[in-house]
C-alpha cells in the first residue's frame, strides 16, 4: 500500500488528501489547524502530530500550503530533515517560480526527487478528484509523479523542468483573474440594463462570451449550483489567494520584461476588494464591488 504524507489540509488539501485515502493509500496528514486535521481524520487520513511525524516513512510527500514562504520553511526545516531520501516530494501549492526552483535545488542536493505540481480546478474539483496538474520535474521522475497524483487528477501535464509548473499556473491564473472580472462586469451591466442576469448567463454561456469563469464558476447565484456564489462566497478560492497569484504574475512579468497590462488592472481591482474587507471571500465575490456593493 502506497504511504503518502499530506501537509496542508485547507480548502484544497482537505479534499485532495481525502481522495488519496479513498484510493486505498495510507495517508499521514498534518495541518496547523486542529479543525482541518479532524476533518481529514473523518475522511480516512491518519492525523500526525507534526510534519516530521507525518513524513518519517513516506513514499511520497504532498504539500498544499498557502504561499512561497510556507513552502520554503516547511521543506527546509521539516520535510528535508525528516523524510526518507527515497520519498518523492510533490509541492502542489501555487508559489513563485524562484521559490519552486530553490526548494527543488535544496531537495536534489540532498538526494530527493522533487516536483512542483500546482493545480487548477477549485475546491469542487479537489473534492471530486478532477484537478488539472501542471508539473515541473525531471523527465525521468514524471511517471511516478503521475502515479502518485492520479487519485486527485483528471489531467496531469508535464510543463517542463523545475519551476515550469509554477510558470504555467501563474499564467493560467492571470487569465482566470482577468476573465472573472470581465464576467462580473458583464453581469453587473446586464442588471443595470434591466436584463435578468440569469437570462444573460443562459445566453452568454451558449455564445462567444462563454468561459470557465461564467459556466463552471458563475459569480451570480443560481446557474452553477456548485459555485461559491450560492453559499455567500464562502470557501472556494479566496480573494487574498487570487491577489497573491496576480502579484506573482506581475513580478514575473517585470522580471521577464513582459507586458501584462490587463493582469495589472486585475491585480489593482483585487487589491481594492481585499482592502475593503473581501480578502476572505471567494474571488468571484468581486461581483459585489462591480455592482457597487461593499463586501458583506
Ligand atoms: P487554505 O488556506 O485553505 O489552506 C492552506 C492550509 O495550509 C491551511 O489549512 C493552513 O493551516 C495550512 N498550513 C499553513 N502553514 C502550515 C504549516 N507550516 N504546516 C502545516 N500546515 C500549514 O488554502 P487553499 O485554498 O487550500 O490553497 C492552498 C494552495 O492551493 C495555495 O497556494 C493556493 O494558491 C492554491 N490553490 C487554491 C485553489 C482554490 O480554489 N482554493 C485552487 C488552486 C490552487
TrEMBL record:
Gene3D superfamilies: N-(1-d-carboxylethyl)-l-norvaline Dehydrogenase, domain 2, NAD(P)-binding Rossmann-like Domain. Its EC number is 1.1.1.31. The keyword NAD applies. It catalyses: 3-hydroxy-2-methylpropanoate + NAD(+) = 2-methyl-3-oxopropanoate + NADH + H(+). Pathway: Amino-acid degradation; L-valine degradation. PROSITE patterns: 3_HYDROXYISOBUT_DH. GO terms for biological process: L-valine catabolic process. InterPro entries: 3-OH-isobutyrate_DH-rel_CS, 6-PGluconate_DH-like_C_sf, 6PGD_dom2, 6PGDH_NADP-bd, HIBADH, HIBADH-like_NADP-bd, HIBADH-related, NAD(P)-bd_dom_sf. GO terms for molecular function: 3-hydroxyisobutyrate dehydrogenase activity; NAD binding; NADP binding. Belongs to the HIBADH-related family. This is 3-hydroxyisobutyrate dehydrogenase. The lineage of its organism: Bacteria, Pseudomonadati, Pseudomonadota, Alphaproteobacteria, Caulobacterales.
Amino acid at each position: 500500500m502506497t504511504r503518502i504524507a499530506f501537509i496542508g489540509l485547507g480548502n484544497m488539501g482537505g479534499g485532495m488528501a481525502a481522495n488519496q485515502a479513498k484510493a486505498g493509500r495510507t495517508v499521514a496528514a498534518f495541518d496547523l489547524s486542529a479543525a482541518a486535521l479532524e476533518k481529514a481524520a473523518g475522511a480516512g487520513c491518519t492525523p500526525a502530530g507534526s510534519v516530521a511525524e507525518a513524513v518519517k516513512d513516506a513514499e511520497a510527500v504532498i504539500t498544499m500550503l498557502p504561499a512561497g514562504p510556507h513552502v520554503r520553511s516547511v521543506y527546509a526545516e521539516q520535510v528535508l530533515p525528516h523524510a526518507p531520501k527515497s520519498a518523492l516530494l510533490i509541492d502542489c501549492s501555487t508559489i513563485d517560480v524562484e521559490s519552486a526552483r530553490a526548494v527543488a535545488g535544496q531537495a536534489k542536493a540532498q538526494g530527493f526527487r522533487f516536483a512542483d505540481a500546482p493545480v487548477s480546478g477549485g475546491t469542487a474539483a479537489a473534492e471530486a478528484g478532477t484537478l488539472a496538474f501542471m508539473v515541473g520535474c525531471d523527465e525521468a521522475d514524471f511517471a511516478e509523479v503521475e502515479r502518485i497524483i492520479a487519485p486527485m487528477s483528471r489531467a496531469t501535464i508535464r510543463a517542463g523542468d523545475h519551476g515550469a509548473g509554477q510558470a504555467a499556473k501563474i499564467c493560467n491564473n492571470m487569465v482566470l483573474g482577468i476573465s472573472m472580472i470581465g464576467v462580473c462586469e458583464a453581469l453587473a451591466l446586464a442588471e443595470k440594463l434591466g436584463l435578468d442576469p440569469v437570462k444573460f448567463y443562459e445566453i452568454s454561456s451558449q455564445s462567444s462570451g462563454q468561459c470557465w469563469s461564467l459556466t463552471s464558476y458563475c459569480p451570480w447565484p443560481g446557474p452553477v449550483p456548485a459555485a461559491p456564489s450560492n453559499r455567500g462566497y464562502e470557501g472556494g478560492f479566496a480573494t487574498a489567494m487570487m491577489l497573491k497569484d496576480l502579484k506573482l504574475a506581475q513580478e514575473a512579468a517585470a522580471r521577464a520584461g513582459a507586458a501584462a497590462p490587463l493582469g495589472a488592472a486585475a491585480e489593482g481591482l483585487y487589491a481594492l476588494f481585499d482592502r475593503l474587507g473581501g480578502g476572505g471571500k471567494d474571488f468571484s465575490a468581486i461581483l459585489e464591488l462591480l455592482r457597487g456593493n461593499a463586501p458583506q
